[in-house]
Specification:
Layout (H helix, E strand, L loop, with lengths): L1 E5 L5 E5 L23 H9 L5 H4 L4 H5 L6 H14 L7 H8 L4 E2 L4 H6 L4 E2 L3 E5 L6 H11 L12 E6 L6 H10 L4 H6 L1 E5 L3 H17 L2 E7 L3 H6 L6 H22 L2 E6 L1 E3 L11 E3 L2 H7 L2 E7 L5 E5 L2 E4 L2 E4 L3
Parallel strand pairs: 5-9, 5-12, 6-7, 6-8, 8-9
Antiparallel strand pairs: 1-2, 3-4, 10-11, 12-13, 14-15
Family: Belongs to the RecA family. DMC1 subfamily.
Organism: Daucus carota subsp. sativus (Carrot)
Subcellular location: Nucleus
């Protein structure tokens, strides 16, 4: 397994994981099941299904696992029993949970004001959603995060690679170059540490997520971008007659994103579109709300609303409520 270390001029160089001292492994590789009596062939079947860690295995239902070709209910029971001996998915104390939270990294957005709004930056092991109309800055933030994620931890970066799933064709590698220059990084190295895929259907989008487990189990990724998460669902499902099916498929997609975030301690940044809100009220000049309904709203840890300001300025605020050291308080612009 690989990791990053910072070199001169803030450039990154891949190094062996063995060179990093006192690093606690965030997940257990699925190969360890063989030491607990699981056949290597069955482990290969799990990997072919996109399951590369014991942690990820425990995030699947037995119904899903028995759906994998060649795995019977008896085999699945034995596999799950072995995985439970390797990873603890039971109760832990609040103190242990606090220690576990120390592995969370906050990645700078490049804006001090936005970092302060987020409590330090985009957080790993969680989903941050940004919604707003076109040209409100959502994709520009995604491009900036592609670079800032690769900064060393002591420079408010994530010290890791980036995976970018593009559903609208908005990724521009040439935009990365000036951003990398701004942060004093080598643009070529930054681009090499971004893996990119263009999705054309909601099924393609989901399959790209399944394929990430293999890469993230072998290399140090710290950010997953989905821009945008809802676009293909709005194209592939039309009319009220398909709304229920769309929301169910969207929920499965979002569940996969949450599992990736927690399994590999990566930050998930997803953009969302807006739709007209007829119930917004007469006192709101241009009422809009995020697409995706309650299913998408419940999946996001943090929701950010972007809107255009004066000239090239953009305005961002927490949606609905604000979190402070004293808990939840009324929202402020």
């Amino acid at each position: 397994m690989l990791a990053f270390k910072s070199e001169e001029h803030n450039q990154l160089q891949l190094v062996d994981r063995d060179e990093i001292d006192d690093e606690e492994e965030l997940f257990e590789m699925i190969d360890k099941l063989t030491a607990h009596g699981i056949n290597a062939g069955d482990v290969k079947k799990l990997q072919d299904a996109g399951i590369y860690t014991c942690n990820g295995l425990m995030m699947h239902t037995k119904k899903n696992l028995t759906g994998i070709k060649g795995l019977s209910e008896a085999k699945v029971d034995k596999i799950c029993e072995a995985a439970e001996k390797i990873v603890n998915f039971g109760y832990i104390t609040g103190s242990d949970a606090l220690i576990k939270r120390k592995s969370v990294v906050r990645i700078t957005t490049g804006s001090q004001a936005l970092d302060e709004l987020l409590g330090g930056g985009i957080e790993t092991s969680s989903i941050t959603e940004a919604f707003g109309e076109f040209r409100s800055g959502k994709t520009q933030l995604a491009h900036t995060l592609c670079v800032s994620t690769q900064l060393p931890i002591n420079m408010k970066g994530g010290n890791g690679k980036v995976a970018y799933i593009d559903t609208e064709g908005t990724f521009r590698p040439d935009r990365i170059v000036p951003i990398a220059t701004r942060f004093g990084m080598d643009a070529g190295a930054v681009l090499d540490n971004i893996i990119y895929a263009r999705a054309y259907t909601y099924e393609h989008q989901y399959n790209l997520l399944l394929g990430l487990a293999a890469k993230m189990s072998e290399e140090p990724f710290r950010l997953l971008i989905v821009d945008s998460v809802i676009a293909l669902f709005r194209v592939d499902f039309t009319g009220r007659g398909e709304l229920a099916d769309r929301q169910q498929k969207l929920a499965q997609m979002l569940s996969r994103l949450i599992k990736i975030a927690e399994e590999f301690n990566v930050a998930v940044y997803m953009t969302n579109q807006v739709i007209a809100d007829p119930g917004g009220g007469v006192f709101i000049s241009d009422p809009k709300k995020p697409a995706g309904g309650h299913v998408l709203a419940h999946a996001a840890t943090i929701r950010l609303m972007f809107r255009k300001g004066k000239g090239e300025q953009r305005v961002c605020k927490h949606y609905v409520f604000q979190i402070t050291g004293g808990g939840i308080t009324d929202a402020k612009d």
